[in-house]
Fold each of these.
Amino acid sequence: MNVNIHESWKNVLVDEFNAPYFKSLVTFVKSEYKTQTCFPPGKQIFSAFNYCHFEDLKVVIIGQDPYHGINQANGLSFSVNDGVSHPPSLINIFKEIEADLGIPYPESGNLERWAKQGILLLNATLTVRAHQAGSHQKKGWERFTNEVIKTISNKKSNIVFLLWGGFAKQKLKLIDTQKHHVLTSGHPSPLSANRGYWFGNKHFSMTNSYLAEKNIKSINW
């Protein structure tokens, strides 16, 4: 695994890449990709950072694990490749955007268009074995992505963090809420959404209102 990550992130995360835990993680991931089918493809492991550069960052959306089905994961949380049918959580995200902002439901579930506008679509774990959810958890990824969140919190200001579901809400302790804007709700998965914990959260219009207030260009969702 080459750490194929944009220079802007390399500069602020250099201590992580040099840390012993990260070197062990790289060894583990290389071995897994050699001997197992893993996702996303190797070149896309750091896509979230390559589409959204550190200096352009406006919004952080935290997911847990990459999708573990064939051709789904592309290195961006909640996102799937063009032409791939939309997973249930993504369907509910798009339905909420439709209700909140009146934007028609999109054909493509590829969220590169969001990432290029300054949204970091960050999974806590950046790799997974095919058809084995959680198989790369507790190998070092969570430590790395927690440091990413802390680095953003310390070095940036006026970032909107969208924390959906219990797992993402645990990251609240890493964020300086005096400098940043945090919105929380239930997870968009059907289990949570159908119980009324997702729909109507209006996170997309609220994100844009906050950005406008800070004279930051809003997101075209």
Amino acid sequence: MSVNAPSPSVTRRRRRALITGALGALGLITALATAIPADAAESTLGAAAAQSGRYFGTAIASGKLGDSAYTTIAGREFTMVTAENEMKIDATEPNRGQFTFTQGDRVYNWAVQNGKRVRGHTLAWHSQQPGWMQSLSGGTLRQAMIDHINGVMAHYKGKIYAWDVVNEAYADSGGG
């Protein structure tokens, strides 16, 4: 029996539905944040995942680290943290050869101070490229990517548990 893969539009609708559901669940968790007792650590999502040798992670936005409900939930429920946008190309190298890690380090430092491992995200992605990179091609683009990856990896050497090296390598428009 042959099963056809869903069309790209069906896949996008499913992805949106999953994201909407996840955001709704996070909203519910946020609403219940003060209702969960402090001794509930053994029943957290992270603890449940650890029972089967897994981790349970979340993306953290550095701009939300001042929100106590946000950090309380993230600190209690998750064992792995990924920087939402702060380690992407446009955030870490806004100008060619000029790196900035302030916001990525802010997420990293919060995670480490709260006993979390950190997953780096992402070294190469077609989206959120800085303006200087968008017009490059061929060998110049290749060298810019090598320089970028080397710069970011040197800064986070020995700190990051794992990296999403390439994110969405194929066009999500269905064109390959």
